[in-house]
Write a structure and sequence with these properties.
By secondary structure, the protein is an alpha+beta fold. It has a single domain, classed as Muramoyl-pentapeptide Carboxypeptidase, domain 2, CATH 3.30.1380.10. Helix content is about 35%, strand content about 20%. The chain contains six helices and ten strands, in the order αβββααβαβαβββββα. Strands 3-2-1-4-5-7-6-8-9-10 form a ten-stranded mixed beta sheet, with helices on both faces. A hairpin with a 5-residue loop joins β1 (about 45-55) and β2 (about 60-65). The radius of gyration is 18 Å and the shape is globular.
């Protein structure tokens, strides 16, 4: 299969004065703040997705759920489609995050979504956490419960629709042109030109302000950076193996 997916957050940068541990816990969905229980809406019997994987160039177009529920064979195909492109590892993707994505696309009338990041192994996530600001150490990506997506249009509307659904976490990256969705606790954050400027916990006390200078990378820049990081990691491991002989 081809190769090509995207990283979740922008550049390796730790803004002054920001409680990074608290921020990343929120993004990961591991905070102790209370979150109201939410009833998961019953999805329509037939659910379809049309997807493009930004890193592999692969496409998916078809139904993944029918009258009997998730279609096992198709969900297995999607688990491969949404693999960690760094190493090819797969996991069992949460069907709930697929339903979340399908619901967002339906809400804004979007025909397809581009997948920028899906499953990550703990090793990949640790590599990104060491080199990029905003990558949660216990990211929902590691559990197959998160997707970073871009749309051809209506991305702000998609973000609003996703937040209104209250089905999990929704991260908004307006200057990097993507949103993050996951099926962890309900929480929202926005990373704009002034850093993590607005963080909303629906049931945890309102807005929690963060402010710092930050300049997100565009999608193409992030793709290039992640490929460089992957190559650097590979060369570092090769060097260790050589010296260890």
């Amino acid at each position: 299969m081809p190769q090509n997916v995207q990283s979740e957050r922008d550049r390796a940068y730790s803004p002054p004065g920001m409680n990074r541990r608290r921020l990343l816990a929120i993004i990961a969905g591991c905070t102790a703040w209370p979150v109201a229980a939410r009833a998961m809406p019953r999805p329509p019997a037939l659910r379809r997705l049309k997807l493009v994987n930004a890193h592999t160039g692969e496409t998916f177009d078809g139904a993944y759920r029918d009258d009997d529920g998730p279609i096992k064979r198709v969900v297995e195909e999607l688990c491969v489609f949404l693999r960690d492109f760094h190493c090819g590892a797969t996991t069992q993707m949460d069907v709930g995050v697929l339903d979340f994505l399908a619901g967002v696309l339906d809400a804004v009338g979007a025909a397809k979504a581009t997948i920028l990041s899906a499953y990550r192994t703990p090793e990949t996530n640790a590599m990104l956490a060491r080199t990029m600001f905003g990558v949660a150490e216990n990211s929902q990506h590691m559990y197959g419960r998160a997707l970073d997506i871009a749309l051809d249009s209506k991305l702000p509307e998609a973000m609003e629709a996703a937040r209104a659904m209250r089905r999990g976490g929704v991260g908004w990256y307006p200057h990097s042109d993507f949103i993050h969705i996951d099926t962890g606790p309900v929480r929202n954050w926005t990373l704009d030109e002034s850093g993590l400027g607005n963080l909303l916990l629906f049931d945890g006390g309102g807005w929690v302000p963060f402010s710092a200078a930050h300049h997100p990378l565009k999608v193409a820049d992030r793709l290039g950076l992640e490929r460089q990081l992957a190559r650097a990691e590979f060369l570092a491991r090769a060097k260790l193996l050589t010296h260890g002989r």
